[in-house]
Structures are given as structure tokens and as C-alpha cells.
Write a structure and sequence with these properties.
single chain, 180 residues, alpha+beta, Alpha-Beta Plaits, 5-stranded antiparallel sheet, 4-stranded antiparallel sheet, 29% strand
Length: 180
């Protein structure tokens, strides 16, 4: 089975730096096959005969901790799950622009309660408009400071679930890369 490991919080703002070549080695040494990385934000495509997602996640997190000396949260998806999200295109009503960033927060677990949508952060200029298929879909609008609010912390706090964020355009490109 082909999986995509989405690593949380690596190579962001100069913290938890790791080269993709090293990341590939860690996954290969852990026994995974056909390991490839996509961009430096911690997207690892690999094959495993195991269908036990929880065991695979623990194995990857343990291998990363051993090799890097710090904890890295891993959100694991099958390639077909990524494909399903891309094909469904929850952002079809929205358009990315210089002032609008479309983001997907991949959730480590399903929220225990169903949130009342939309979830809005006036401070960070964010709107969570959908929570489905283990993801929260977020529209991030540029703030008066010129910066975008980053949805990860907001989503984690609102849903009480750990997640890792990717821009929608990156998710679509990740799928194309993984299918080659």
C-alpha cells in the first residue's frame, strides 16, 4: 500500500531542520520501500505491506525520534485518501490569490465532537468551512499586518485534535508527484 506521511512542524521558521535526503534514509532504514519526499515541508511517500495505520505511525515517529533526537508528529494517509480529497475539491467555491490562501489541516484523529461551522478567527482572519475525511479546510485571508494567519494552531485548539497544515495547491501537486 502507498502511504503519505505528513510531518508536523519540521523545517518551519528555522526549527526542527532536516534535509529530505536524511528523511528518506530514516524511512528506508525503518524498512519502508520506494521512499520519496516532496518539497522540504515533510511529505514522505512510501510503500508498506502493513494496513495498520496506528502501528505504522508509531514506528515512523519512533524512528524519527531516534534519528533526530526530538519528537515529530506524523499524520499518515493512504495515497487513495489524498486522491479522494483532491478529486472532491472542497475549495471549488474559493480562489487562491495574493490575499487568499487555501489550506488543508490533516488531522491525526477525528474530532470527538462535530463542530458548528464555520469556525472563524477574527484575530487571524481564518475560516474553517469544512471538517471531513480527516481534514479541516480553511480559508486564510491576509491580515492588516500583511501576513497570513496560520490555521494549524486555531484548528487544533477548536477541534482539540493535532494536525499538520498544507496549502491546497501543494496537496494537489503532492498527489501528482506521488502518482509519477
Amino acid at each position: 500500500m502507498i502511504y503519505v506521511a505528513l510531518l508536523r512542524g519540521i523545517n518551519v521558521g528555522g526549527h526542527k531542520l532536516i534535509k529530505m535526503k536524511e528523511l528518506t534514509r530514516i524511512f528506508t532504514d525503518a524498512g519502508f520501500k520506494n521512499v520519496r519526499t516532496y518539497v522540504a515541508s515533510g511529505n514522505v511517500i512510501f510503500e508498506s505491506g502493513s494496513a495498520n495505520r496506528a502501528a505504522l505511525t508509531r514506528k515512523i515517529e519512533k524512528a524519527l525520534q531516534k534519528a533526530l533526537g526530538y519528537d515529530v508528529t506524523v499524520v499518515l494517509r493512504t495515497l487513495s485518501e489524498i486522491e479522494s480529497i483532491v478529486n472532491r475539491n472542497p475549495f471549488k467555491k474559493y480562489e487562491a490569490s495574493k490575499d487568499v490562501m487555501l489550506c488543508v489541516v490533516f488531522l491525526a484523529n477525528e474530532p470527538k465532537t462535530k463542530p458548528k461551522l464555520p469556525l472563524v478567527s477574527l484575530t487571524d482572519n481564518l475560516e474553517v468551512f469544512e471538517v471531513a475525511e480527516g481534514t479541516a479546510c480553511v480559508v486564510s485571508r491576509r491580515k492588516k499586518t500583511g501576513w497570513f494567519g496560520f490555521p494549524n494552531n486555531f484548528v487544533e485548539k477548536q477541534l482539540n485534535v493535532v494536525g499538520t497544515t498544507r496549502q491546497w495547491s501543494s496537496v494537489s501537486k503532492l498527489l501528482k508527484f506521488a502518482e509519477t
